[in-house]
Amino acid sequence: MTFKIQQEQLSKSIIMKRYILLLSMAAVSSALLQSCNHDIAFDACGQIEATQVIVSAETNGKILDLNIQEGDQVSEGQMVGALDSMQVKLQVSELEKRMEGAKSRIVDINRQSAPNQKQLASLEKELTRFSNLYEANAATQKQVDEISDKIDILKAQIAAQKQSWERGNDGVIYEIDTYEVQLAQREDQLAKCRIVVPVSGTVLTKYAERGETVTNGKPLFKIADMEHLFVRTYFTTEQLAGVKVGDTVTVIPDDGSASPKEYQGSITSIASQAEFTPKNIQTRDERADMVYAVKVSVPNDGTLRLGMYAYIRK
């Protein structure tokens, strides 16, 4: 008898759980189907979205500053924080000193060879003088040949010295070029220690705080362009007849008021292929199985919010 009672109680418990589950599913389905207001005449329905960008750390380090809060308006190129860059700065300073030291080893070939060039010019004058004397029988051929040999030897010495200096300079220049590449790498790392806003927009979420140590790729904050919003909606094949990219449509946000404000939007893209109607999207024709994704841009006057439902009317 006791076993029979326990079975009946277990059956009632299972039936009650199934009933609660069905009620929950019905509530969810009702919420999805009622997301678009039937009191407003519309051709399509969707949610207001924005282009969002997640700004991440570009290097490893400790956050020294992050001067933003959720809801702040930020501009492209604005510096809002910085990571610890002391080690990189020290490396930059070291490379700059090495470059200066290398530059000091570059030989000024013209200045270094000036004494030999002066001596060569003197010997060439001497050769001219003795050649004239030889023609006047006032000097011997031996004297002329000795001076000529000295000129040849000096020219060879000058050429050898010049070649040695040029090779030495080439090595130093190669060393300087290497330092310049390393310096450019350090300066790039230094620039990545600065937290800069890539696009203008509104800070939606802040993921990190001052004092935290982050790694390369760690999200710091998320921003969205709240001035240029868009609605991603779906049109049936019949609705797309005569509609093209660039056409103007009416966007009516579901702001809860009896007479919501109407906005002029523009169709910026139409999918090239149809897809099955998403479960949370309602179309004018409930029998439509296949629809085309359509993106409608709409300017924000400050009253539109992300996630708000909006109706599209051609």
Short structural summary:
Helices cover 41% and strands 27% of the residues. The chain has helices at residues 2-33, 86-103, 109-112, 114-135, 141-192, and strands at residues 44-56, 61-66, 73-74, 79-83, 194-196, 201-206, 213-214, 219-235, 248-253, 263-270, 275-276, 290-299, 309-313.
What does this entry look like structurally?
This protein folds into two domains: 36-78 and 204-313, Efflux pump adaptor protein, beta barrel domain (Elongation Factor Tu (Ef-tu), domain 3, Beta Barrel); 85-192. Helix 2 (86-103) runs antiparallel to helix 5 (141-192). A six-stranded antiparallel beta barrel has the order 1-8-12-10-9-13. The chain has a four-stranded antiparallel β-sheet with strand order 5-4-2-7. It has five helices and 13 strands. The protein has helices spanning 2-33, 86-103, 109-112, 114-135, 141-192, and strands spanning 44-56, 61-66, 73-74, 79-83, 194-196, 201-206, 213-214, 219-235, 248-253, 263-270, 275-276, 290-299, 309-313. By secondary structure, it is of the alpha+beta class. The protein starts with a helix and ends with a strand.
